[in-house]
Every structure is written in structure tokens, then in C-alpha cells.
């Protein structure tokens, strides 16, 4: 694939995407966001891929939206570009996405990580929303996703001050899943990804959908949604295979159908 700002590769059943503008700490320009989306959507459609890993080359995961590109824009440009639809599409990828964060994940970079399902971080990972320092605010879900994740109090503090959140703090507040030394981070993400990739893909798919539903639905409606997904899985071949394998005391061979 001919991408300018990202690299893609495949490791077994895992589709890998690496942000690759290390000279500017992987600042996200619009083309890059389109490329990330395009790579994710093609992995999402590819039945041989079960998990997506998103990482950043160099000193950062991503230090935010490209400030230079953005600086001359006005509201009408944003409206006409309708660029946030690409972010919405990233957030609606069906397969599980693991963000692998080393160094900075700031502004749009943090928002991108929050669009993923799991976050594995290096001990040097730093998160934050420095938009206030630029006279703006997050625009790709930062005020919403961070608040739903950590609650109003910490969200306000971090968004008002722009101060950096260390990997340890991020772990403490449930923003990330785990911290690893930089040297073994990607290996650990691949291990976790491989584990998820061995599960029944439709289970993973409907679990992701149901958990995301829980974030913005009242309990009763969410329960209803969960139940329908639960029922639906009983029409899959993998449900038959999974339960048969249990009864026959062997490992299941899931096909994703
Ligand atoms: C464009 C950026 C950039 C960004 C870094 N660079 N972040 N370029 N947009 N967001 C560039 C620098 O200009 C510099 O280019 C090179 O990357 C290395 O960065 P340095 O600043 O020299 O590195 P360092 O001193 O280590 O500082 C790292 C840093 C700092 C603390 C992360 O770069 C920084 O504050 N960056 C901006 C972070 C930020 O405000 N992000 C939020 C953006 S707004 P040169 O050419 O000088 O070497 C946002 C809104 C999202 O994300 C809205 C939704 C899309």
C-alpha cells in the first residue's frame, strides 16, 4: 500500500498500522487521518485480520493535530471539509484496536488513542490535552470520551490545565490497560492481540459493539441491546464449534462465521 504518512504490515492475524511522521512527532495532518482510516477500514473488511494494532514511530504516538495545517483554517473550512466524519468512522471500526503508546499522546493524538479499545503504554508515555495553551479545545472527542472514562472532576482538571498525565496516572484512572518497558511494548501488544485473535471473532465483534453501547445508553436499553447480540451469536457456526469443542474437550477452531 502506498501511504505517505503511515506504515502498514500484517503479523499473523493482526493488522499493524504505524504512524510515521517522526520528525514532527507524528502530528496528524488531514491526509494522515484519511490514511489511518483507510488502513483501518481495509483491515476491518479483511477476514484474515482479527485485531488491529496502532502505534507511532519515534518519540511519540502522536503530538496532536498538525498545528501548522490547522492554524490558517476558519470555521467554514472545518464545516466544508467535514473532517471529523473520518474520526467518527475510525471510532466505528468493528474489530478490536489496540493503541500502543510510547512518548507523547497529546491533543488529537490522545483522542486517537481514546478511539481505540485497549491502550498499552510504555513507561515514558505522556497523555494530555494541551489545546488550552493554543486558545482552542479538543475537537475529536476529547471532552466527551475522557469525561466518560474518568468522570467530570479529573477531566475538568486535565482539560483546564493542559497538564501532562503520566503513564502511572493514566493507569490509575483506567485510561490505559497496562504499562511495559519500551523494549517489550510491541511484543506484549502482539501477545495480547494474538490472544484476542484466537477468540471467536463474532463474539469479540458483538462484545465491542455492546460495550461501546454501554457508554452512552441507559442500562435498560443497553441490556436489551446486549441480549439481542447474545441471541444473534447463537446463529453463528462458531457458537456451535465453541460449545462442541468444550464438550469434546478440545480447542475450538473459530472461523469468524
Ligand atoms: C505540528 C508539531 C506538533 C503538532 C510537534 N511538532 N507537535 N508540528 N503539529 N501538534 C513538531 C515541532 O514543531 C518540531 O518541529 C518537531 O515536531 C519536534 O517537536 P519539538 O517541539 O521540538 O519537541 P520537544 O521539545 O520534545 O516537545 C515535544 C512537545 C511539543 C511537548 C510534544 O512538540 C509540543 O508541545 N507539541 C504540540 C502539542 C500540542 O499542542 N498538541 C495539540 C494540538 S491541537 P521542528 O520543525 O521545529 O523540528 C489538537 C487539536 C485536535 O490536537 C483537534 C482534533 C483533530
| Main sheet specs | 6 strands, mixed
Elements, N to C (H/E):
EEHEEHHHEEHEEHHEHEHHHH
* Strand arrangement in the largest pleated sheet: 1-2-3-5-7-10
Q: Give the overall shape.
A: globular
Structural class: alpha/beta
Total DSSP E strands: 10
The radius of gyration over CA amounts to 19 Å
Unreliable stretches covering 5 or more consecutive residues: none
Bound molecules: hexanoyl-coenzyme A
Pfam family, one: ECH_1
InterPro entries: ClpP/crotonase-like_dom_sf, Enoyl-CoA_hyd/isom_CS, Enoyl-CoA_hydra/iso, Enoyl-CoA_hydra_C
Keywords: Lyase
Protein name: Enoyl-CoA hydratase
What do you see in this structure?
It holds the Pfam family ECH_1. This protein has 257 residues and is α/β, with parallel strands linked by helices. It is built from twelve helices and ten strands. The chain has helices spanning 30-45, 67-71, 75-81, 84-91, 108-114, 142-150, 152-161, 167-172, 182-197, 201-215, 219-233, 237-247, and strands at 6-11, 14-19, 51-56, 60-62, 97-101, 104-106, 118-122, 126-128, 165-166, 178-180. The strands form two sheets. Strands 1-2-3-5-7-10 form a six-stranded mixed sheet, sandwiched between helices. The chain has a four-stranded mixed sheet with strand order 4-6-8-9. It is globular. The protein binds hexanoyl-coenzyme A.
SSE diagram, text form:
Elements: E1 6-11, E2 14-19, H1 30-45, E3 51-56, E4 60-62, H2 67-71, H3 75-81, H4 84-91, E5 97-101, E6 104-106, H5 108-114, E7 118-122, E8 126-128, H6 142-150, H7 152-161, E9 165-166, H8 167-172, E10 178-180, H9 182-197, H10 201-215, H11 219-233, H12 237-247
Parallel strand pairs: 2-3, 3-5, 4-6, 5-7, 6-8, 7-10
Antiparallel strand pairs: 1-2, 8-9
Helix pairs in contact: 1-4, 6-7, 10-11
The chain binds hexanoyl-coenzyme A.
